[in-house]
């Protein structure tokens, strides 16, 4: 392939590309402005590979695919996905130093969500009305307008409990652990770690009344309700959306879900912390 490329350049009297701009392993162009993550990967694999000059790329190197594969995946991501992310308004840089404080400033609103009993049907876990339940509820109306039910993620859980009942409860809780529901959108893995640490500092698991978060455990509530709630609020602040507008919330959640894979690739926790 490299020989064919060289012949093509010769036929068209076009100078071949500068080898410094090519991937040393697959010979395809590197992004014009590689991120620090790609630079670090190139440096790391350099010492795990050996020189392998070839036509069209005198700086080519050779290594097992298990070693250089991550480099090629990364530069393809930065060349193809990153420009698309920019077009959609997803950030390529985040001020991590201020993220914890941004989350801490949400404590009052999050505490209201946690303290509000919400819709009582979710705590029975059967999704059905019966005489015993009615007697236990007395004449109290369902809290459909409180902070808990205004939380889009809890509202979704309630709807699923009412529809699927206790038999589907295990599937419901496991679903909340899937990738997209646990990621804070384009804030990625690093953002997830910072957000979860801040949340657990504000709401220690041992201090959360299990009865208030049923059918979830306190940790599941933090991860599947509070983490996406915080992610949604961060996105809304970034995009200038109204946190009290349900339509704006849905728009933010769409961004949250669409940008989850991008966030994990763009802001991985291990690379960002140097581990």
From TrEMBL:
Cellular compartments per GO CC: cytoplasm; nucleus
Region spans: Disordered: 121-148
KW Nucleus (keyword) present: yes
InterPro entries: RTC4 (IPR039024), RTC4_C (IPR028094)
Keyword annotations: Cytoplasm, Nucleus
Boundaries of every Restriction of telomere capping protein 4 C-terminal domain copy: 113-269
Keyword Transcription regulation assigned: no
SMART domains: RTC4
Compartments where located: Cytoplasm; Nucleus
Pfam families, alphabetized: RTC4
Biased composition (Basic and acidic residues): 125-148
Top-rank lineage group of the source organism: Eukaryota
Function: May be involved in a process influencing telomere capping.
Family (UniProt): Belongs to the RTC4 family.
Name of the protein in question: Restriction of telomere capping protein 4
Protein species of origin: Mycena rosella (Pink bonnet)
